Amino acid sequence: MASLPPHLAAAPVLTQPPGNFAVLRQRNFAWFLAGTTLSNSGQWIQQVTLSWLVYEITGSGAMLGTLNLVRSLATIGLAALAGVVIDRFARRRLMLATNGWLFTISLIFGFVLHANPGVIWPLFAFSFLGGVAQAIDMPLRQTVVFTLVHRSFVPSAVALVQTGWAVMRSLGPALGGFLILWLGPEGNFFVQAGAYALVAVTVLQLHFPPERSSLTAGSTRGSLMEGVRYVAKEPTTRAFLLMGWVLPLFIIPTFSALTPIYAKDVFGGGPDTLGALLSAVGIGGIGGGFVATSLGRLDRRGVIQLGALLLLSLSLMGFSQSSGLWMALVCLALAGFFEMIFLTSNQTLLQLSIPDALRGRVTGIVSLSAGLMPVGALVAGFGADLFGPRLVTLLLSGSAGVIAVAVYFFSPIIRDYRLSLALAEREESTG
């Protein structure tokens, strides 16, 4: 059996769930949360800048979808391999390396856009190169949570990390939209570079336990296949992994590919309107994150996950039929609220089902779901060009609602799963 890292093994085993925000008193986690939130800020400023520029230059929803496709090519190609890298190399060095890469390309492309403001190819190049770093950084940060905190704190730690993501989804797009007006698009890339410089400071403050590779000598392909075999044979991990596909295929395309079209063509606005739409999702997500952190001893997390998905789909259906901007903002805030509860429940139960020795490799495989986002975005973009954004949003979100109902009736693994069972299984596997 795997053993806990020394700094966690020495911690007392908690027989009762800790306080909802007790994990914030742990210095390592507080620095990690700050750094992850700053990193998210750079990503959201980047997203609103790239999306607005591409649609402003081309006026094409299909090009918006293609931009997301280009970004995720790196994720599709590298995410599984990134899991092997995470299990093999020191995680502090990997965090510094990926953050340094994001800082460098943000700075370079800021100067490129300053010199060539109307050229579109740098936007696609930046999306691909940024995706290379994110292919490693995303699963890396998910695994680091389990290195820094005791298993009893995992549910609240995951919820707080997701809440930080929601905070930046709220503030980042709004800030990005206004920065386009104040500093120009190239200025946003310089702001991103500054955010990544601050992230490096937070990484240097983290104290990792002595790390050693969890891999035995062997080929990279063989190491990767260990993770694949685990997912294939474990029904619980597989079930929550498949549920995680619903967001990138049916929900996120509305947020990533269609909001610029709603902002410009439906509501007649500019970058500030786009920022407001995306920020409404983030504001709702902040509320959902705090609720998820406060769920505490509620045990039926599988049912909570499915209920949140159903309400999320209904909220987006309402958004698609909104006649005015204010009603659209309310519906998007509700969508962000329920999305956060669904995402936190899904990620918590999924990660608790993975053994520590395989965490990097399995998380890398899980991260392949990010490669589904451009598929959904491309379909949404082409659909918006042909049928309009309202009908496409209605069809995508309605499909997510049907999935929630179907899983409730036909998947007892998810419907009947309990948080107490997940924590007990993890304690036994690491004891």
Describe what this molecule looks like in 3D.
- The chain has 431 residues and is mainly alpha-helical.
- It has one domain: MFS general substrate transporter like domains (Growth Hormone, Chain: A, Up-down Bundle).
Give me a quick take on this structure.
This protein has helices spanning 6-9, 27-58, 61-88, 91-115, 121-148, 154-183, 185-205, 220-233, 235-243, 246-266, 271-293, 301-320, 325-352, 359-366, 373-387, 389-410, 412-415, 419-430. With 431 residues, it is mostly helical.
Tell me, rounded to a whole number, the average pLDDT: 81
Instruction: Give the count of structural domains.
Output: 1
Cα(first) to Cα(last) distance is 8 Å
With helices defined by DSSP (H or I, 4 residues minimum), what is the helix count? 18
CATH evolutionary superfamily: MFS general substrate transporter like domains
Low-confidence stretches: 1-17
Helix and strand sequence? HHHHHHHHHHHHHHHHHH
CATH fold-level assignment: Growth Hormone, Chain: A
Structural class: mainly alpha
- Whole-angstrom Rg: 21 Å
CATH classification class:
Mainly Alpha
Percent strand: under 5%
Number of strands: 0
Helix content, binned percent:
over 70%
CATH architecture: Up-down Bundle
Shape: globular
Largest sheet: none
